[in-house]
Amino acid sequence: MDGNEVTRRAVLQGGAALAGLAALGAPLGALAAPVAAGEEVIPWLDRPEPIPPPAQGIAGQLLVWEELGGQYTPTEKFFTIAHFGPRTVPEAGWRLDFSGLVDRPLSLSLADLRALPRREVQFTLECSGNHGLPFLIGAIGNATWAGTPLAPLLRRAGWQPRGTEVIFWGADGGPGSVGDPPAPVVEQFARSMSLGDALDPAILLCYEMNGAPLPASHGFPVRLLAPGWYGIANVKWLRRIEIAATRHEGRFMARDYVTQRKIEQDGLASVRFTSVGRALLKSAPARVVRGARGYRVEGVAWGAPIDRVEVRTDGGPWQPAYLVGEPDREGFAWRRWGFDLGSWAAGEHTVSSRAFDRAGHVQPPPEDPSLATKLTYWESNGQITRRVRIA
Questions:
Q1: Model pLDDT for residues 184-233, shown as the tens digit of each residue
Q2: What is the pTM (predicted TM-score) of this model?
Q3: What DSSP string runs through 230-279?
């Protein structure tokens, strides 16, 4: 029985699970708390750069990897991104409208949505710029979200034959410019997806986070929750859902959050543009912990149903990590993992990880063509290497 088989059955509860982890060399309680008694977290040498002034009003609380503890990220420590600054939308008078190419327009209050069937999902939300900028390495968190499924409401509203795209409009907006020469405009935050994607039963109109009402910073009264998609698709402060005949090509789909890659066709160099959408397979070392049994690395993997994780130190061979806890049923939540280092020589070391999903895909190395041809920082899911110094 290999390490991955042990931990598929281990849920960090009861004697069998604890025995399985102990057999792998992991201290009892490892990864279940911020740090066990008598243990010490060794800080990474490669610290993220300070958030520069232009981004300070956009990026809020970011995850500190060394503080990674249990499976869920506390709401007060969950990262926030607000492109037009913080927004407060009062519940009084708020309604969510279904309009456009619909057969039966709808207008629903928060109470109306709460009266509908409730569904809960565990989902790791990551900004598609995470690990693409030197200051942005903690734009990720895992939470339990709750709301009512979107698909039944789309079916209730109905759609006309030309309706093929669903546009989600937020209450936030701000100044922009369009045209040549540029002319000032006010642009509302909006994203769209195909009608087929929007009918996915996993997609929620979300009004709860970690068992409490959705905070203002995370989109109160209601946000779109699209498990398996990057954060940009999870529209906050939702106010209108429009069925349209064409894809929405606003700032956050056609001009920003667009990945550019070099390609060559018929001997000619060109660039391919694709809008950021579904999340990609990824993992990261979170921290190095020193305890009575030596050192261990802890981390998480996400972006797809995780099959296994491998770790290597100082550029050596890849070795299997052990997975912690049972996977969530749908594979939308991160999977914690650990790797026992035992004793470790003094000096500087590197730690890398790579994740494999159940379909056989592997997290790519930096030289992989999918990354090496990329001209923008979005969707940076390459293997991550961290540096640490052992005294």
A1: 888 999 999 999 999 999 999 999 999 999 999 999 999 999 999 999 99
A2: 0.89
A3: -GGGS-SSEEEEEEESS---SIIIIISSEEEEEEEETTEEEEEEEE--B-
